Amino acid sequence: MKDVIAAIQDAAASGTRLAVRGHASKHALGGPHGGETLLVSASGITDYQPSELVITARAGTPLAEVEDLLATRGQALAFEPPRLAPAPHSGTVGGMVAAGLAGPARVAAGSLRDHLLGVRMVNGRGEALRFGGTVIKNVAGYDVARLLAGSWGAIGVITEASLRVVPLAPAEATLRFALPQDAALAQLADWASQPLPLNASAWWQGTLAVRLRGARAAVAAALAQLARHGGEPIAFEAAQGFWQGLRDQHDEFFTHARLEDAAGHARLWRLALPPATPALALPGDMLVEWHGAQRWLLTSAPPEAVHAAVRAAQGHARLWWGHTPPAPTALQQAVQAAFDPHGVFHTQRLT
Amino acid sequence: MTVPDQAAVVRALQRVLPPDGVLWRTDTTAPYTCDGLTAFRQRPLAVALPETDEQVGAVLRVCHALGVPVVARGAGTGLSGGAMPHARGVTLALARLNRILAVDRASRSATVQCGVRNLAISEAAAPLGLFYAPDPSSQIACTIGGNVAENAGGVHCLKYGLTLHNVRQLRGWTAAGERAEFGARALDAPGLDLLPLVVGSEGMLAVVTEVTVALAPRPQVARCILASFARLEHAAEAVASLIGAGIIPAGLEMMDGPMTAVAEAYVHAGYDLDAAAVLLCESDGTPEEVEEEITRMSEVLHRCGCTRVVASDSEAQRLRFWSGRKNAFPASGRLSPDYLCMDATIPRRHLAQMLLTIAQLAERRGLRCLNVFHAGDGNLHPLILFNAADADELQRAQALGDDILQTALALGGTITGEHGVGVEKLGAMCLQFSDAERAQMAALKAAFDPDGLLNPGKVLPTLARCAEFGRQLVRGGELPHPELERF
User: Fold this and answer.
1) Beta strand residue intervals within chain A, DSSP E
2) Whole-angstrom Cα distance, residue A97 to residue A146?
3) Which positions in chain A touch B374 (Cβ < 8 Å)?
């Protein structure tokens, strides 16, 4: 903590910009890297009481360490943060919060922001601050802690975070259906409006996969209901591998996309859309997640065409690798300046 | 800038509002002098009653040009004085913006104007099999705009989350009357996410006129367990054990023995009068899910030494179990002419210690204290009974309230779990946050509202103020909005 404060104060005094870094597992995401690297390495789980459903860890703690400990007590991070590099360097707690990303369960379980309860941070003035806490209900002052979720190091350095955790569901099952995209989207919209334990979905190349998680009886009843729609159960281990590959972006789709992107044949886009948006008329290979709210498009279509189609659907699109962030709004800029008047963290990594 | 007189402000507002849209005479502004925290009262300079979104923007531009403070207000059910008027300010009453703009099953969302009542959203969504989950106790009266301003909770937030977790997009105006938008119809938006700052900002950062909320499938069944315990510690242990067993109840509430006795005398819910504490544990979902969860919860409760367990087997019985809990505050009003209602959250594992400490502190001050909690999320509402006619007793009650908030902080908790800071807890903000942390919040406020015109004097204490502590004073046993259920 003292090192971080000193580094920020030095940077502010000398007009240097700092790029905050943990494991650099998400190096390929976000805007261009500028400035000197400020490594956040102070590590350790400082508090974990399973009955509180909260874990507190220093920002440099490996995410793998947190998830391993939670698993021993039958708990997990509900939002399934992607691990974009192999363990043990698969990301830190600070990097996870700063990136604010979530995996397949996000559509049912909420985002990282939703599960963030408190942070300790150092702002651009070198002041150590604490916002939020370890309790779920807390309305004292502005909810500054949650502003750090997805802030990409633009308003300060996270030094510790408290996150809500959830018990592992007693039962889980995955089914697959042969459906074209539009039919899959309509089917998901219908199921998601029913009291079914729907936890995740993915559609790719004519196959829809749906994961159920919840009470044993609820999953059994839902399995029977969805089987009547032509659902075919997938063996547990195979399903685990599938969802993990999707979460960590090393499944068939992402592996292929990485090669195509690197070779310059096509670019991978992330599309964020209102969940009920019908299939978009864009060329390329489309992977649909989050019941339609997150879609991945590998395409050689011109960027303007992608942006136009997504904007027309009230969504937004970004290149997943090699992204140039849009200009912040005046209000976003003013908020950044409120934390960082000297521009220590102006590295344009913010997506 | 010189302070404009009332007549000038009224004339400027009349130019942008309908003929009956400006109130300024003392008889017509009287209903707006306080919110649910009636101990704090202030007459506003004027009340503006816009009917459209555009009129809200126009009012803000008028006030910005004149340098007049603006206090946004929904139904006025808040419990911390967040909507208390400003002496030189305009109260922006938003109840007329009450249109439900869209309810959509496919995207499981509803877009409504800020003055729509919380319960009205669920009523509009009911034909689609959906509902809006956050259910603050005042839900038949409170507005979604007020819920957003306070980040309102309810008894079901352990499972379904607070307002923040159920809001996708906010539209409205900045202090200067410029369009502002936070969040998206998608599940995220580019850049720094300002939505969590605006939610719970008590009307100090922006004025929200349109809210897109997420809707959830309506549970088919709900059942409630009523469990009695011979010792408080056992009840507290049961709360930790339920959560530790991997169960997230839809509701998990606790009342101590004295509170149970008072509630039972008021509503005859069938509570166990020999119990040192009772727990209400609710499960909702599909019939299969609920059956399984009720069985698991009953097992845990038995293991924790409960003396009696009854699971509701009809909706009427479930509502009867809840009736005492929901009437805890008015029931207390029959017992004592005055009481202070505290609102703090602590980590669940300290529930037993907190209860014992409160009992000791109350004894030291020579006062009685009843306890009701949202046990599942550690949110406490100790009720301190006293007689305000006795100056010494009033002072001791206030001191006990301070003791309780400080104990909550010492145990790693917070000074307000759901009622907000408003004017009530300005003093306690000094206890929870350092000078640098409060300065950071003030800098954020200035980023949104450089002239400090939106709801000035709330949430953020001045340094001079940092010697006081907050409290809610209920006088003569009279509650604001006595018709509403209280949690």
Assistant:
1) 18-21, 36-39, 45-49, 54-58, 75-76, 116-122, 128-132, 157-164, 166-167, 171-178, 198-204, 207-214, 232-234, 267-272, 285-289, 294-299, 316-319
2) 9
3) 137
Residue partners of A295: CB distance under 8 A and separation at least 6: A270, A271, A273, A280, A286, A287, A288, A289
CATH code for the part of the protein at A252-319: 3.30.70
Nearest residue, CB atoms, A147 vs list B196, B348, B416 = B196
Decide if B150 and A139 are in contact by the 8 Å CB cutoff.
yes
Place of tokens 């936890």: A199
- Asked if B35 is an interface residue toward chain A (Cβ–Cβ < 8 A), one would say no
Q: Half-sphere exposure of A190 toward its Cβ, with a 13 Å CA cutoff?
A: 8
Q: Quote the CA–CA distance of A239 and A335 in Å, as a whole number.
A: 43
Closest CA to B482 of B262, B337, B330: B330
pLDDT in tens, A250-298: 999 999 999 999 999 999 999 999 999 999 999 999 999 999 999 999 9
Task: Indicate the burial class of A215 (C-beta count within 10 angstroms; 0-12, 13-18, 19 or more).
Answer: buried
**Is the CATH number 3.30.450.20 carried by domain A2-167+327-339?**
no
> What are the b/e assignments for B345-377, b being 16+ CB within 10 Å?
bbbbbbbbebbebbbebbeebebbbbbbbbbbb
Nearest to B432 by CA among A123, A54, A144, A140: A140
Helices (H), B67-156: 118-125, 144-150
* DSSP letter, residue A210: E
Pairing of strands A157-164, A116-122: antiparallel
A229 near A183, Cβ under 8 Å? no
Taking only the tens place, the pLDDT of each residue in B215-265 is 999 999 999 999 999 999 999 999 999 998 999 999 999 999 999 999 999
DSSP A100-159: T---TTHHHH--HHHHEEEEEEE-TT--EEEEE-S-S---SS--HHHHTTT-TTSS-EEE
The reply to whether A252-319 shares the fold of A2-167+327-339 is no
User: Which residues of B, range 290-349, sit inside 8 Å of A by Cβ?
Assistant: 291-293, 345-349
Nearest to A272 among B188, B245, B379 (CB): B188
Q: What are the C-alpha distances in Å from A130 to residues A117, A146, A159, A234, B438?
A: 11, 12, 10, 45, 10
| Mean per-residue pLDDT pooled into runs of 10, chain A (351 residues) | 92 95 92 85 96 96 98 97 96 98 98 98 98 95 98 96 96 98 97 96 98 94 95 97 98 97 96 96 98 98 98 96 89 97 88 67
Distances from the Cα of B460 to the Cα of A132, A337, B28, angstroms: 15, 20, 30
Terminal C-alpha separation, chain A? 26
A-to-B residue pairs, Cβ atoms closer than 8 angstroms: 261
Fold category of A171-247 in CATH: Alpha-Beta Plaits (3.30.70)
Per-residue model confidence (pLDDT) at position A322: 86
Please, what sign has the CA dihedral across residues B206, B210, B214, B217? Answer: positive
CA-CA distance, A268 to A76, in Å (whole number)?
29
How far apart CA A155 and CA A148 sit, in angstroms, is: 8
Centroid of chain to Cα A53: 20
Q: What is the Cα–Cα distance from B75 to B144, expressed in whole angstroms?
A: 9
Same CATH fold, B327-487 and B108-217? Answer: no
Task: Domain ranges for chain B, please list them.
Answer: 6-93, 108-217, 221-323, 327-487
Per-domain residue ranges of chain A: 2-167+327-339, 171-247, 252-319
Q: How far does chain B reach from its first CA to its final CA, in angstroms?
A: 45
pTM (2 d.p.): 0.95
